[in-house]
Specification:
The protein is of the alpha+beta class and 136 residues long. Helix content is 35%, strand content 25%. The protein contains four helices and nine strands; from the N terminus they run βααββββββαββα.
Length: 136
């Protein structure tokens, strides 16, 4: 079975964010960092070389495969800000309609800029996702 490459490490979150060249993306990243800290009450940790995660969950699939992951997190990618949430977005359809400009993938929410979305709605979406993840 292949081992996950994205693992918890001791890299400095602030140093990582300060390396972001684009001023707006760097500022947005620090705002998301603050928002996720408020919601999770957890300190941010680096996972791999480019993901900031909050909290920790150990999972075991029916197949027997298991691993470790964060409860919620984000990554300031070149093309967008990628937010990682547990589970699907189906239970959050009402919030997604109010969020603003975004795209979704399996467990990922993609936004270009924080000003494109309603931050209060984003915070509620993160809260609900964290609550669902903690039930696991």
């Amino acid at each position: 079975m292949a081992e996950l490459k994205t693992k918890l490490n001791d890299a400095n979150v602030t140093d990582f964010l300060n390396q972001i060249v684009d001023d707006e993306k760097r500022a947005d990243s620090f705002e998301i960092l603050k928002l996720m800290q408020q919601v999770t009450k957890q300190e941010p940790k680096m996972w791999g070389s480019s993901i900031i995660g909050f909290g920790h969950v150990h999972y075991i699939y029916e197949s027997g495969r298991e691993g470790d992951w964060f409860v919620t997190g984000f990554s300031p990618r070149k093309q967008n800000l990628t937010l990682y949430v547990m589970g699907s977005f189906n239970p959050h359809a009402d919030l997604l309609e109010k969020l603003g400009k975004h795209k979704t993938g399996v467990g990922c929410l993609y936004i270009n800029k924080l000003k494109d979305v309603d931050v209060k709605v984003l915070k509620e979406l993160i809260k609900q996702s964290v609550k669902a993840a903690r039930k696991l």
